[in-house]
């Protein structure tokens, strides 16, 4: 009792002491000091020590009905849980942990609910923060100044140039804009941009998924080096990338004779442009999937294999449902990067009008030729494609947060 009171004074003081039990068989207990037969006959029975009715380990005797009732009772709920659901409060930690130890009862349900709330908060915070965080109000002068500086910086660097492109493209009306959009060279550049994205995104999606699973599910020599190679497109300039590919696959490159014998050309042609785009967009899917796969419990895949599922069935029914939001996020980033690529494609394509020109290359050529209206029209189309990509990205984040909150 004393040790219990030292460790949990508030809990022991708040709970009533259990009713003392009578001595066994109605016999008096011996006093602490030695006594003769006459003293034993006259000595009153000392009251037994009261037991504390808390859950500490020093309290002897059986568990109490009060603790059992607390475990069986549903955990208190919060009304501010994400996704409109309820979450257990901090005061129900003992009951939920006790109930989840045997995998049954309301305690297990409360623990599962708490895990869902934590997952929802993490999804909302890690993928954009759609209401997932509850920050402090901006109620002081330093915070307001910092917020004003941030807004002004974003407006000067991002918002005003973006708005100015639309103003310059439509300052003479919609007619000149449509005239440039319907130009054959403009239309060809648009088709090349969309075609490059349509080729590079699926290939990098398949490669990134396979590479991420291989890296996270296996240990092999050179794993760190492989991760460094996957990050190389982030650190190499796109112009250098185009030059490397041109030197390797060009007329004086290592594969020049082989390509010439088979009548296949990479440089100044669409295959080389697709290869350059795939190089610069390669890391996005891999880097989005590796953290997701590391957080996934591999025992789910092991259980599926134990039940007789083949690798394709394990991926389709177990792995893919757990990584689909990260995969979609990587696909969106890959698509945005592919449509906006300039440096590597410019070097390896030769920027041939009507043949190897994309929208980004069309903007540069039109602006250098003082055809600013055509350049602004192409910039508007690229901006619209970027806005569509951002909208899809936002919808993916909202869907992921909503699913995690369920």
TrEMBL record:
| Keyword match Transmembrane | yes
Quote the biased-composition stretches of kind Low complexity, using this chain's numbering: 1-18, 31-42, 87-101
Q: Does the keyword S-adenosyl-L-methionine apply?
A: no
Location, primary (coarse class): plastid
One GO cellular component this record assigns the protein to is: plastid membrane
Q: Where is this region: Disordered?
A: 1-42, 67-112
Q: Which InterPro entries match?
A: CysW_permease, MetI-like, MetI-like_sf, Sulph_transpt2
Listed A to Z, the keywords are: Membrane, Sulfate transport, Transmembrane, Transmembrane helix, Transport
Q: Where in the cell is it found?
A: Plastid membrane
Q: Which Pfam families match?
A: BPD_transp_1
TM region positions: 145-171, 191-215, 224-250, 262-286, 374-392
The way it spans or sits in the membrane comes to: Multi-pass membrane protein
Residues forming the ABC transmembrane type-1 domain are 190-393
User: GO terms for molecular function, please?
Assistant: ABC-type sulfate transporter activity
Tell me the protein's name: Sulfate ABC transporter permease subunit
Question: What is the protein's species of origin?
Answer: Raphidocelis subcapitata
